[in-house]
Each structure stands twice: as C-alpha cells, then as structure tokens.
Amino acid sequence: MTEYIKTMRKYIGHERLLIVGAGVFIHKDGRLLFQKRKDNGCWAADHGGCCELGETVEETAKRELYEETGLTAHSLELIGIFSGKELFYTYPNGDMVSNVNIAYLCDDFSGEMTPQTEETTDLQWFGLNELPENVSPPTKPALKCCVEILRKRGEPNDHI
To answer: What dotted CATH number matches 3-152?
Structure first.
C-alpha cells in the first residue's frame, strides 16, 4: 500500500477510494505468468499496483512487475484502460476501492522469477486454454482483453 493510500485511509477509513494503478501481463510462448495473491487467495495475471504520487503509469507498471516477480520489462504495449463499477472491489480487510487500471502486455523481459512473499504466494505459467478458475475479480476485464489480443495474433494456446 502506498504512503498516499495509507494517509487517505486515516481520513476515510474503509470507504470507497478511487485508485489509479498499472499492471503488466507477462507473455511467453503462448502462456501468461500468473501470481497467487496472498490477500484473497486468487490468481492474477496482471502484476501491478497503485501509482505513487509523481510516478508515471509506465514507471508504476515496471516497478510493480519487478517487486512482485523479479522480472524487468524492457518494453510495454498498452492493452487498455479499465474502469467503472466492474472494477469496484472490497479487499478482505474491508477497504473499498474503485479501480482505474492501465494494463500492459510484455513479452520482452529479463530476470529471474522470484515471487514477492508479502503479496504473492506463487508464480505459475498458464496456457491461454488452461487459465485458472479462481481469478481475482478486478483483474478479469483486462485479462479477457489480453487473451483476446493474443488469440487474434494466432498465439499458440498451451505450450509447456
């Protein structure tokens, strides 16, 4: 949680807060890298989080990707901007948010995969036809768009 959000929560408690965040879908050989979230036990394919004050969304996306996976993005392709009631979410601790999520796709990356243990319990690759069922709700719209983009490109579906 950013210092800004911690400060705002002091004033508004668990009330709904507008959050701007960025996430990166890591793609390789027809597979997407998912992380198992510690807070809700669900899988998420966009590795990301909230923007810090003064940070660009691209900087947020790259920073969060590195913090959560150990991977460094060398290029980012904008997938889309997702918002609205579909991205209202209540965290297990009761904090309510309205997410504005800027999502990127990346297949140009390097580094050694190391899950961040504060927020993530596991990292796994999933083929486009074998996505996990227990997907974190706020990530579903961007994930659907990402998979559609990859399928239109004729990406292979289930490489191991």
So the answer is: 3.90.79.10
